[in-house]
Amino acid sequence: MPMAIVVFDLDGTLIDSAPDIRAAANKMLCEQGIAGLDLPTIISFIGNGLPKLVERVMQRTGLDMSRHSELTAVTLAHYNAATTDLTRPYPGVVQALEALSAAGHVLAMCTNKPEEPARSILRDLRIERFFNGVVGGDTLAVKKPDPEPLLHIIRHLGEGPALYVGDSEVDAETAVRAGVRFALFTEGYRKSPVEAIPHQHQFSDFTTLPGLVERALREEQTC
Ligand SMILES: O=C(O)COP(=O)(O)O
Ligand SMILES: [Mg+2]
């Protein structure tokens, strides 16, 4: 069986990070004298990176958009100060990463979260050792759904069939535009029904991911 390059999204895929993202956004709002937003609203704003999330929060709460850069920096500072107070890996994630690594697959990350908090979360949750590369939303000049961050990390890791594992419409579009096969984790922060999101594979339980990767590799060989 050949080895695969398995690239993971972060928010809503490996980790349930929305509660800490919400806490950071709500601290910023509180400082502006504005009531905080609820978790479903914040989840609906996740996917296109932190600057976009702050833009959506500001639009929803009527803040002056000329302050976007300032309030993005404020929110990021709050977030960097507490990235894993409430954030945990989804059940089975650590075991799946262990099994995939042990099988010889090369693992990496392509997230729209800024690179610094993405790396500190991997360290705090003690899963950094599994990742051979991390591309964040601010690593390159472009972010997902532009295909370049995903193609960049795959090029960096060398040859081999590649699979992108993510939870969102943005991830699916990125994979389509990059020409990379996509496995959709259905329990993250997607906004549309599973059928409306282009994917080659889907799963709801991380304990099934190592088997899914083996099947995906076999399919790739026969096509
Ligand atoms: O930061 C975001 O908006 C989304 O992050 P993700 O790409 O890891 O899902
Ligand atoms: Mg995601």
TrEMBL record:
Molecular functions (GO terms): metal ion binding; phosphoglycolate phosphatase activity
UniProt xrefs under Gene3D superfamilies: HAD superfamily/HAD-like, Putative phosphatase, domain 2
Keyword Transmembrane: no
Active-site residues (renumbered): 9 (nucleophile)
Stored InterPro entries: HAD-like_hydrolase_sf, HAD-like_sf, HAD-SF_hydro_IA, HAD_2, HAD_sf, PGP-like_dom2, PGPase_prok
UniProtKB keywords: Carbohydrate metabolism, Hydrolase, Magnesium, Metal-binding
Catalyzed reaction equations: 2-phosphoglycolate + H2O = glycolate + phosphate
Cofactor(s) it depends on: Mg(2+)
Listed pathway(s): Organic acid metabolism; glycolate biosynthesis; glycolate from 2-phosphoglycolate: step 1/1
Binding site for Mg(2+): 9, 11, 167
Entry annotated with the keyword Magnesium: yes
GO CC entries: cytosol
GO biological process: carbohydrate metabolic process; DNA repair; glycolate biosynthetic process
The EC number(s) this enzyme carries: 3.1.3.18
Protein family membership: Belongs to the HAD-like hydrolase superfamily. CbbY/CbbZ/Gph/YieH family.
Physiological role: Specifically catalyzes the dephosphorylation of 2-phosphoglycolate. Is involved in the dissimilation of the intracellular 2-phosphoglycolate formed during the DNA repair of 3'-phosphoglycolate ends, a major class of DNA lesions induced by oxidative stress.
Annotated protein name in UniProt: Phosphoglycolate phosphatase
Organism encoding this protein: Thalassobius vesicularis
Gene responsible for this protein: gph
